[in-house]
Amino acid sequence: MKLVVAIIKPFKLDEVREALTPLGIQGVTVSEVKGFGRQKGQTEIYRGAEYMVNFLPKVKIEVAVNDDIAPRVVETIQTAAHTGKIGDGKIFVFELVQAIRIRTGETNADAL
């Protein structure tokens, strides 16, 4: 099993969710996060004053999937979240050692 974690621009969330649905993804965890990458934040102008925003708003998506579908999930997120501009985000793939559905006690692939 794999845990796919993607940090994307907030306005791309609906496109990513809609793109994952045909793959049979039944559960996704979404968190509002802040961070910065190579761009190190950006300069904003508010009421005529310029100030630096060090942490930009992003959305973190976490999806637990079977090994066989993980490459398609990564490709789908990459395609749906792509704008071609700086700050599009990152995708990380982790080995998932164990998954347990609390309600039923199902484990691993059955728990997904």
UniProtKB/TrEMBL annotation:
SMART domains linked: P-II (SM00938)
InterPro entries documented for this protein: N-reg_PII, N-reg_PII-like_a/b, N-reg_PII/ATP_PRibTrfase_C, N-reg_PII_CS, N-reg_PII_urydylation_site
Recorded superkingdom: Bacteria
Gene3D superfamilies in the record: 3.30.70.120
Family stated for the protein in its record: Belongs to the P(II) protein family.
PANTHER family in alphabetical order: NITROGEN REGULATORY PROTEIN P-II, NITROGEN REGULATORY PROTEIN P-II HOMOLOG
UniProt protein name: Nitrogen regulatory protein P-II
Organism: Telmatospirillum siberiense
Organism placement in taxonomy: Bacteria, Pseudomonadati, Pseudomonadota, Alphaproteobacteria, Rhodospirillales
